[in-house]
Amino acid sequence: MDETWTPSVQLLGQVDELASVAYAIDYQAMDELGMPINFKVEVTALEPNPPTIRVYENKIVGYFKDSFLNKNLQHFTNDKKYINTTTFGAIDIKNMQDMIYYRPDETRSITFSYRADAYDPSDLTKTIVATATYTITVLNNWTNGELQLIEFVKFAKTKPKQVVYWENAEFTTKSGTAVSWEPKI
Question: Which H or E run contains 146?
Fold first, then answer.
């Protein structure tokens, strides 16, 4: 029985973080008379995905956000609490007094894997007739972190005046504003 997975290449590609993805995975086989049979496909993520990626039926859609966790992201709140987190999304801008320190994740890429199971839609027991594994490699885009840092520094209640430390993708404020970016690799 001839069989065909679509897409036929299991590496779905490399995408920058925040780039949109939309994939539909299909499986077709030929019966003994050479007639095509379309099978139902269900895709399952093999590891946790960001909440901005949706895996359902035979589809993988969305965009990869916060796939890379920053090494260190520190700020003070309005009530002078020191907070250390790994994502900009965890910071409440309205309650942020001052951005103190930032060091991004130095990982160059992360690969997410998905299992596609094909079964005959008329089979109520959902007996799997074929399985394939697909991967998407997400490339770390340090520019996103740079832009987020600049925006968060703008929202700080204490307005910095100059760059104090910005080397190897680390940023510390004493009275500094981030104006350039060099990721540590």
Answer: helix 142-155
Predicted local confidence at residue 133, as pLDDT:
96
b/e per residue 58-89 (b: at least 16 CB within 10 A): bebebbbbbbbebbebbbbeeeeeeeeeeebe
**pLDDT, average across residues 119-140:** 92
How confident is the model at residue 159, as a pLDDT?
60
- How many other CB atoms sit within 10 Å of the CB of residue 134? 21
Which residue has 């780039």 as its token pair?
Answer: 19
pLDDT at 1: 58
Q: Which helix (H) or strand (E) segment is 27 a member of?
A: strand 26-30
Write down the domain spans for the chain: 1-65+109-139, 69-103+141-185
Whole-structure pTM value? 0.76
> Which string of DSSP letters, residue by residue, matches 156-176?
-SS---S--EEETTEEE-SS-
Just give the CATH number of 1-65+109-139.
Answer: 2.60.40.3450
Sign of torsion over alpha carbons 154, 157, 161, 165: negative
Closest CA to 129 of 138, 143, 118: 118
Closest CA to 176 of 110, 165, 142: 165
